[in-house]
Amino acid sequence: MSYECDRCDRCFNSPGALDQHQDVKNHYAYECRRCDETWPSSKGRIEHEDEDHNYHHCSQCDRGFNSYNALQNHLRSRIHTGSNVACPFCRRNFATATGVTHHLERGSCPSAQNVNRDSMYKFVRRNDPSGSISKRLLTWDGEPEPGPALATADRAWNGSFFQCYICQRQFTKITGLNQHLQSSVHMQQLYHCPNHECRKDFKTLAALVNHFESESCGFMRFGQVQSGISDMVSGQRLLGQ
User: Fold this and answer.
1) Where are the beta strands (DSSP E) in the chain?
2) Tally of CA atoms within 13 A in the half-sphere of 197 that contains its CB
3) Beta bridge pairs of residue 58
4) Which is it for strands 30-31 and 63-65: parallel, antiparallel or unpaired?
5) Does the predicted TM-score (pTM) go above 0.70?
6) Which of 24, 49, 178, 209 is the most exposed place for a label (fewest CB within 10 A)?
7) Tens digit of each residue's pLDDT (9 = 90 or more) over 200-216
8) How far, CA to CA in Å, does 43 sit from each of 47, 62, 181?
9) For the segment 223-241, what is each residue's pLDDT rounded down to a tens digit?
10) How much of the chain is helix, strand and coil, in % rounded to 5?
11) 3-class DSSP state for residue 87?
């Protein structure tokens, strides 16, 4: 009986001789996806990629990622989690708690058009008397939705670009400038992380929820955020605020 090398045409009379050849010649079946090293098993290759190349592996998809966060984002995507978080009004399903919160904050829900960033902040502030996640803004009385006034081409043009009247950032197209103005860039910080070692500020509830889901400060696990968002933004509570 002969034993053939996986990577060349040579045959050997025993498994030991084949193994010695593969070890010396680097001819094992599983090749590293970051260098030319080979390994006798998929597990060995994955451990090498993780330890030597910081290349993180999804065993279900047999895909590698260049960072731990990239792998976690993949594992939290629809590929692995499906669409498990439902909007409390229109019942549209989202893969993450961030998705459903953003859907509501930007006023995109066809079944709850009065729910937006301002109404959600008022609701959260009312139900967060200790200011655990909401900032205590005594002078805040709501902001125009969805952001600062739109620019007009004649007034925003500075001779070369369309310029933001708030931050002076320049854009080649008026649509780009107005997308910038419609974003949360110039809106007030409404929330903060409750982790005292973090205390990062956020302009939207969706951004805070995304911070939790990313597990970047370790305050909450991804699954806890997904299971808790339904209570936070339940339809009855929001409509009855």
Assistant:
1) 3-4, 11-12, 30-31, 38-39, 56-58, 63-65, 85-86, 93-94, 162-163, 170-171, 191-192, 201-202
2) 4
3) 63
4) unpaired
5) no
6) 24
7) 999 888 888 888 877 77
8) 6, 11, 50
9) 555 555 555 555 444 434 4
10) 40, 10, 50
11) coil
